[in-house]
Write a structure and sequence with these properties.
The protein has about 300 residues and is of the alpha+beta class. The chain binds fe (ii) ion.
Length: about 300
């Protein structure tokens, strides 16, 4: 079957038809999806009722899977899914809803802040593939912001000012914004800040984009309050309505996005009453955004 991509907005977000994610893809189909991601940054697939194994197999077409470890407060013996899948749900390992004041749930509420997946790792993620297995009756959308369009819309003085800036990202910074600062010494080590450039260039299209996330807590060489005020301004700019697509989930949807060109956030839903079971596979990036200086 031929893969067809219908643009939902000019240059951002495509809807894909002509592919069954349960089947092995041809090289042409994989290439068409990759080209679609280069151009649209977000691709939506409907009616894809897949198992975890099928999701992992499909994901491997796009590179190495980044294991979902070191990303939250869930301990290895509390996991519901294998480490190849990030558990984007409100369930514990017995498929029961997490309690309102469960530490893991409070930490995961940070997903409602704008971010790019794994920006808190030295080598941040390339693609994320999110499969909607059970979706709530209301709320729980995922919103995506086009960070290329946001960059393009900056004035020239700002583009010049940010060209060489380096930020420090950590899960402690994003959670700290929600007042969650209660980390153990081991968690503080796990969430040690990493450096990321503020402006990225896409390796295929050459387009520049803002590399922002709520994980960004300071700019190297800047006083922290000044850095945070500026990063907040840039985030406000980048998430204006004209740059944002809201995905309303239907069970069986799968959405792939390029973390190098987008930010996203989950939206609120009745989390202590309704199940939202989403499972994410993540494709690892190939290198840090900040190159180590030669000795
Ligand atoms: Fe995310």
């Amino acid at each position: 079957m031929t893969v067809t991509i219908r643009h939902l907005t000019p240059g951002f977000v495509g809807e894909v038809e002509g592919v069954d994610l349960r089947q092995k893809l041809t090289r042409d189909q994989v290439a068409a999806i990759e080209a679609g991601l280069d151009e649209c940054a977000v691709l939506v697939f409907h009616d894809q009722k897949i198992t975890d194994e099928q999701q992992v197999a499909f994901s491997r077409n796009f590179g190495e899977i980044e294991l979902a470890v070191g990303t939250n407060l869930t301990k290895p013996n509390e996991r519901r899914l294998s480490t190849e899948l990030a558990d984007i749900s409100n369930l514990d390992r017995d498929n029961k809803l997490l309690g309102r004041d469960d530490r893991r749930r409070m930490f995961n509420l940070g997903n409602q802040l704008w971010h790019s997946d794994s920006a808190f790792r030295a080598t941040p993620a390339k693609y994320s593939l999110l499969s909607g297995r059970i979706v709530p009756s209301t709320g729980g959308n995922t919103e995506f912001a086009d960070m290329r369009a946001a960059y393009d819309a900056l004035d020239e003085a700002t583009k010049a000012e940010i060209a060489d800036l380096i930020c420090e990202h950590s899960l402690m910074y994003s959670r700290g914004l929600l007042g969650f600062t209660d980390f153990t010494p081991e968690e503080r080590v796990m969430f040690t800040p990493v450096q990321q450039v503020l402006v990225r260039t896409h390796p295929v299209t050459g387009r520049k984009s803002l590399f922002l996330a709520s994980h960004a807590g300071t700019i190297v060489g800047w006083p922290m309050p000044e850095a945070r005020a500026f990063l907040r301004d840039l985030t406000e700019h980048a998430t204006q309505r004209q740059f944002v697509y809201a995905h309303r989930w239907t069970a069986g949807d799968l959405v792939i996005w390029d973390n190098r060109q987008t930010m996203h956030r989950a939206r609120r839903y009745r989390e202590t009453q309704e199940v939202r079971d989403m499972r994410r596979t993540t494709i690892a990036g190939d290198r840090p955004t900040v190159q180590a200086k030669a000795a």
